[in-house]
């Protein structure tokens, strides 16, 4: 695992944005998606942003468009993984070179997006890691994240920091070589396992996370069961 020491995001120079797409999976995020898109545009002027509305029953799509993002909408909820895959397929179709992902609930600070994209000069995938900045993280989430990170690293065959973070940047060649079977929250873990096994380099940069954002769509029991099934599939391969 490579830790890229680039320092705080807000003070760094902006990376080039040619052929770069931000993909934001969103569900019932009308209260936050506008500010997430707006802040991302403020820190990375000219960045193309794509919101995947995963079956929202509120005005998520409208708020995203008003803020300046393109929107693809799933008519029904298909899961975060399916939303990400829709975004990745669109990115490959557009012929972009780099993709940035972040959540729609405001937990990821867009000020650090330039740091993740800049670190792609040294890795194929860059994770915004909360491992050294967990102040305010609920203790149960901290313990669960630590265990899952350890297990995903073992399955991937390489040390990875904060495998549960959805704040990531990656080169398009990774999207062409990795296509997980999962469609829900376990998708992001499977993505890293497959990427590690295929020899893609994975790095991390430290980022803060805001835990006063609206409630998560994660169901601890159901999604833990999905993660266990993912692990079993990987172990028998």
Automatic annotation (TrEMBL):
GO terms for molecular function: transferase activity. InterPro entries: Glyco_trans_2-like, Glycosyltransferase_2, Nucleotide-diphossugar_trans. SUPFAM superfamilies: Nucleotide-diphospho-sugar transferases. Residues 23-176 form the Glycosyltransferase 2-like domain. Transmembrane segments: none annotated. Gene3D superfamilies: Spore Coat Polysaccharide Biosynthesis Protein SpsA, Chain A (3.90.550.10). This is Glycosyltransferase family 2 protein.
């Amino acid at each position: 695992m490579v830790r890229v020491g680039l320092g705080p995001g807000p003070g760094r120079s902006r990376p080039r944005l040619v052929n770069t797409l931000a993909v934001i999976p969103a569900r019932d995020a009308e209260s936050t998606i506008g500010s997430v898109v707006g802040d991302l545009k403020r820190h990375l002027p000219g960045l193309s942003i794509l919101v995947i509305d995963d079956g929202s029953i509120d005005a998520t799509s409208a708020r995203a468009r008003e803020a300046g993002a393109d929107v693809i909408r799933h008519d029904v909820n298909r899961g975060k993984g399916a939303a990400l895959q829709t975004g990745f397929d669109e990115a490959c179709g557009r012929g972009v070179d780099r993709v940035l992902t972040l959540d729609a609930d405001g937990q990821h600070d867009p000020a650090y997006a330039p740091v993740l994209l800049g670190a792609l000069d040294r890795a194929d995938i860059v994770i915004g890691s909360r491992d050294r900045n967990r102040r305010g993280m609920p203790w149960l989430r901290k313990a669960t994240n630590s265990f899952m990170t350890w297990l995903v690293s073992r399955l991937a065959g390489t040390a990875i920091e904060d495998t549960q973070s959805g704040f990531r940047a990656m080169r398009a060649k990774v999207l062409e070589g990795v296509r997980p079977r999962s469609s829900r929250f376990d998708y992001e873990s499977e993505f890293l396992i497959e990427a590690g096994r295929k020899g893609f380099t994975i790095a991390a940069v430290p980022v803060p996370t805001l835990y006063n954002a609206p409630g998560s769509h994660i169901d601890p029991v159901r999604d833990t069961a999905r993660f266990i099934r993912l692990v079993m599939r990987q172990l028998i391969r």
